[in-house]
Amino acid sequence: MLHANAALTPRQRLQMARLIVEEKWPATRAAERFGVSATTARRWADRYRTEGAAGMTDRSSRPHTSPTKTDPARTKRIVSLRLRKRWGPVRLAAETGVAPSTAGAVLRRCSIGRLSRLERRERVVVRYEREAPGELLHVDVKKLGNIPAGGGWRFLGRVQGKVNRHLDGGRARSRYRNPLMGHGFIHVVLDDHSRLAYAEICEDETGPTAAAVLRRAADWFAARGVTARRVLTDNGGCYRSRNWAAACAELGIAAKRTRPYRPQTNGKVERFNRTMTSEWAFAQLFTSEADRRAAFPGWLHAYNHHRPHTGIGGHPPISRLTNLPGQYN
Prior knowledge:
Blueprint: H1 10-21, H2 27-34, H3 38-51, H4 72-85, H5 89-96, H6 100-109, E1 137-145, H7 153-156, H8 158-165, E2 167-168, E3 171-172, E4 183-191, E5 197-202, H9 207-222, E6 230-233, H10 242-251, E7 254-257, H11 267-281, H12 289-305
Helix pairs in contact: 1-2, 1-3, 2-3, 5-6, 9-10, 11-12
């Protein structure tokens, strides 16, 4: 690697050295041509004579020997005391007979200059799973922007995506107007034990809509032998509404909400949303929102019946519902 203050590149060094060695230029004349001192020119010429073109690269500036470097035995003792006693450079210096600056240098060289480096940080991953289907349903809403006619920017690029976004029946809207394409709200109800998912694409995320989805989801799960007993949601407005509370009471479902700002608590449905967006919503070019929504039931069926789920041993979610007619269709 060329050092920061180098006046010549390896190619220029080689050219200058060849002028001196092979074409017999005076070192002073070659130095003037390349803008360096005569001493520098002679040094590269001498290296060219002994090493050839390979000698034109920079050498390491590290000294061949370091007589004053702390000996290995003392370095080992400093490190050992640091690990066992958590002492600082001053105390280590007094104990090992070196200067505090030397002890500090040893600690930095061994990457233990900060006590935080010595602490063992183990990430504790707490995983849980209900014992039977229906014991807990995770519920959430995924909001997605609608696709304009002709396709969105993710596949066509931002320029063409912006053009499509401003088209209305084949006529371009005014450039001073920036119409919103609207959004789709995907209400998801996911069983904790089996990962079986029920989902609907709705036009809003209000309390009445969420309550209606819960009722239909409960019927859908009941048709598959699953009785919903408890639901877990975030603290969204639709889940704090009277409609949601009334639907849970009507269905005999206990409603629970996650702690604010802790989406990890509802992680299973959050992970489903991520899978849904990557494998369906943004998996291919859809030229309209209607085309994307038409593909959703097929993808959801494949997710429930055929797609291997790593969280349950590589089996599809439907496999955890036993004695269900046609569960693998």
